[in-house]
Write a structure and sequence with these properties.
InterPro entries: NAD(P)-bd_dom_sf, SDR_fam. The chain is an alpha/beta fold. It is built from three helices and five strands, in the order αβαβββαβ.
């Protein structure tokens, strides 16, 4: 993971945005392209992609990170539509909480065990392009 340089939208530059795009967006696209041909051939599979809640409800202090997450979210929703009826399912999960116990004071937190059922539910139901975990 690239070092996290937080930048507001007006402070965002190619230099502090590019690592986020490469890690969050390009990494997911690369991973999906590695498995998608076999899934399409089999007519089955699930692709679940995760971003922070800023992909849906942006937070100015994370303007550069949210931009990369928003790009991934848009791409996943588009992929979901493209794959409709193929047996392959793609969905986006936005996590709008801190994960773990050591988060900043006043920020809602959840454990991985609390979040995991959302992924399983998406995989089992396969009926929505995205879900938001708020704790």
């Amino acid at each position: 993971m690239p070092s996290l340089t937080m930048a507001t939208p007006s402070e965002s530059t190619v230099e502090n945005l590019q690592p986020q795009i490469e890690y969050n967006f390009y990494g997911a696209v690369t991973a999906a392209r590695a498995v998608l041909p076999a899934m399409r051939e089999a007519g089955a599979g699930t692709l679940l992609f995760t971003t922070g809640g800023g992909s849906i409800n942006p937070v100015p202090m994370l303007g550069n990170v949210n931009a990369a997450a928003g790009a991934l979210r848009n791409w996943v929703l588009n992929l979901h539509n493209e794959l409709a009826g193929s047996g392959v399912y793609a969905a986006h999960v936005a996590i709008s909480t801190w994960i773990g116990d050591d988060g900043p004071e006043g920020i809602p937190a959840a454990t991985p065990d609390q979040i995991a059922p959302l992924y399983w539910d998406l995989h089992e139901r396969r009926d929505q392009p995205e879900a938001v975990f708020t704790g």
